[in-house]
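Extended Data, panel c. Modelled sequence:
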Amino acid sequence: MLNRSGTGDVEVRDCAPEDIAAITAIYRQAVLEGSATFELEPPDEATMESRRAALAASGHPYVVAIAAGGLVGYAYAGPYRPRPAYGATVESSVYVRPDRHRRGTGFALMQRLIAQAGAAGFRQMVAVIGDSANLASIKLHERLGFRHVGTLKSVGWKHGRWLDTVLMQRALGAGDAAPR
């Protein structure tokens, strides 16, 4: 799938084990410098590969964006909660290299992720957006059909301040219009 973002083409494809080094580097920067994730210590490549393998083994989609210069972003959908009743709901995550922000990379990743999650039979996707000041992520999700369903105030402490999380949700496939 190509996304023509006006600044070049981005190829979005399924994640492979050889992508983990670049993914780990992107996530490391997000952990150390950003507020999109509430993780405080960046995981190493072995941990990131273990997470990828677990998602793949359980049928959850994980995609990467490739542009000139290599891997520029990734997105995945994981279990929303571990209890069986939540089995049709996934939580999305998307991370893009800072030099690719606002260039259509996140949109292309999320479009593919939404399509794959729906095709896999999942019915709802939840985005838990770190930091209510992360307007770019909120706007991205709105453009993709997510609706705001809540804000959890001051639930995370990072970089010397309290952070909110914004909850957004969209239906996948038949959503709740039919039984599972």
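Helices lie at 20-33, 45-57, 105-119, 135-143. This feature is highlighted in the accompanying rendering.
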